[in-house]
Amino acid sequence: TKTQVAIIGAGPSGLLLGQLLTKAGIDNIILERKSGDYVLSRIRAGVLEQGTADLIREAGAGARMDKEGIIHTGTDFSFQGEHHHLDLEKYSGGKHVIVYGQTEVTRDLMEEREKAGGVTVYEADNVKLHDIDSDNPYVTYHHNDEPFRIDCDYIAGCDGFHGVTRKSIPHDKLVEYEKVYPFGWLGLMSDTPPVHDELVYCAHERGFALCSMRSETRSRYYLQVPDTDTIDNWDEDKFWDELKRRIPPEMAERLVTGPALEMSIAPLRSYVCETMQYGKVFLLGDAAHIVPPTGAKGLNLAASDVETAFRLFVKIYNEGRTDLIPRYQEICLARVWKAVRFSWWMTMFLHRFESAGRFDFRVQQAEFDYFIHSEAGKTTIAENYVGLPFEALE
Ligand code: FAD
Ligand code: DHB
């Protein structure tokens, strides 16, 4: 088989890029290791920036998001149970975010791809990249134990942090940065009404907690847990009890609890691979960078990489602008590092560090007090949270 762009991974990055390329008449094939149902069973992000939502609309997959997504013009914080509201719209010059699950974004993109007749090979095993710095790169894989080969012009690595694409770049060419945090997030999804109509980011001496949602009837909650904890250390009752201790008392009183639809622990890390392009290979989304979830930036950063890669492919195929290829990582990294910084800062701002002493706790308290009461502080949180602008490709 021959295609123009071979896309590895059918998460949000791969599906969004595939859909935009198909709409622009650029041929592409997606190879995904797992089944479609497995991809849809992973519960992850919940907050979309306006730029991300616009790109989903451009890909023709925004109808259900615009109908069912919940516009949030503010977000809330609490420190030791004291509740504060941040007017995102006011402090970001009129912007908002949309609460709409990654699962739903993925489902909508999958449906549109099927309608458009786009090819996605699920359960593609043993994907390998070949001759990536030549003019004739190709990808091989197995499906139902049968070997296949795809010849292509470019390869888009949308295969997440553990994917094969980044590992195919010669190791001595990779420039990487990493920071691991000594805790994870334990998430719980339940069909219960959200405790508040906005998200609540709670700093507490027992650890961070987040109250989020997927709809008016479905809640998503997270607790900071030590990185030594496994899911066996927890059950639903223990989760709800601990959540009640960390959120404002008036919310704990009205919290509706219920059976967990899902419970899982995600470790927190910051990671950047600055080599986002090598030969004919591009890295997008989690394949190139990981942020701790605190700033709700992971999926949104993936979308901004897709935006840049898509504009680049259009210029390459329509105008022969291969000279713009080195601009890809320049443009992406400027935005990536700012989101990495914000996610790191939100993590340090709101989490409890075992290593911190009484002094550090007081400083954290003062920092919270300062940011939440200062116009400058509120502006800096709001403009980062709603998303920094996308840079044009030129
Ligand atoms: P992925 O979603 O990881 O998709 C990669 C795909 O590639 C997968 O389907 C995988 O199966 C496939 N793949 C892997 N290896 C191979 C291979 N060898 N061959 C073929 N296919 C392969 N982000 C936000 O913006 N806001 C949030 O609120 C938020 N909350 C989060 C909460 C949690 C608990 C977690 C874990 C993450 C959260 N994120 C959030 C981050 C967000 O989910 C990720 O940034 C996003 O999934 C990245 O999309 P992606 O398509 O780049 O990678
Ligand atoms: C969700 C996850 C986040 O990391 C975040 O900052 C906000 C919301 C969520 O899954 O709903």
TrEMBL record:
It holds the Pfam family FAD_binding_3. Keywords: FAD, Flavoprotein, Oxidoreductase. Its EC number is 1.14.13.2. Transmembrane segments: none annotated. GO terms for molecular function: 4-hydroxybenzoate 3-monooxygenase activity. Residues 2-343 form the FAD-binding domain. InterPro entries: FAD-bd, FAD/NAD-bd_sf, HB_mOase, RIFMO-like. This is 4-hydroxybenzoate 3-monooxygenase. The lineage of its organism: Bacteria, Pseudomonadati, Pseudomonadota, Gammaproteobacteria, Moraxellales.
